[in-house]
Amino acid sequence: MIIGCGEGILETAERRFCDQSSGMTNMAKENTCQDHIASTLLALLHQTQRVTRQVMFTETVNKERLLQQHSAILGAIRERNLEKAREAILTHLDYAENYFVTRSSISTGV
């Protein structure tokens, strides 16, 4: 099932994010204030990513569209086509941003 593959990709991405987060936190250990700020920001980013995934993956059509976008990004990277990868990433980010702006406008009536 394609959706199952997408969930595996998300788990891998989340694991990589956690690995990077702990590395960044370790760099800030020398300064208590920096450590606190870095830990807080990384925790917020991690929580935001989890909520974003939960919200965006509630609709099957949305899951499929996101999987197609991620496949396009990966394909461009495998081709080593920087411009194509950049365009695919921007398309994906614009889609995600518009998704939440639209949902926000609908829920607030603005």
In short:
This protein is an all-alpha fold and 110 residues long.
In words, what does this structure look like?
The chain is mainly α and 110 residues long. The chain has two domains: 58 residues; 52 residues, no CATH class. Helix content is 88%, strand content 0%. It has four helices and no strands. The longest helix is centred in the C-terminal third of the chain and has 27 residues. The radius of gyration is 17 Å and the shape is globular.
H/E element order: HHHH
Contiguous uncertain segments of 5+ residues: 1-7
Largest sheet: none
* Structural class label: mainly alpha
Mean pLDDT equals 78
Question: How many domain modules?
Answer: 2
Distance between the termini: 38 Å
Helix amount: over 70%
> Beta-strand level of the residues, as a percent range?
under 5%
H/I helix tally: 4
The assembly state of the depicted protein chains is single chain
Radius of gyration, in Å, reads 17 Å
Q: What is the 3D shape?
A: globular
Tally of DSSP β-strands: 0
Which short descriptors sum up this protein?
110 residues, mainly alpha, 2 domains, 88% helix, globular
Question: What is the strand and helix layout of this fold?
Answer:
Blueprint: H1 2-27, H2 32-56, H3 60-78, H4 82-108
Helix pairs in contact: 1-2, 3-4
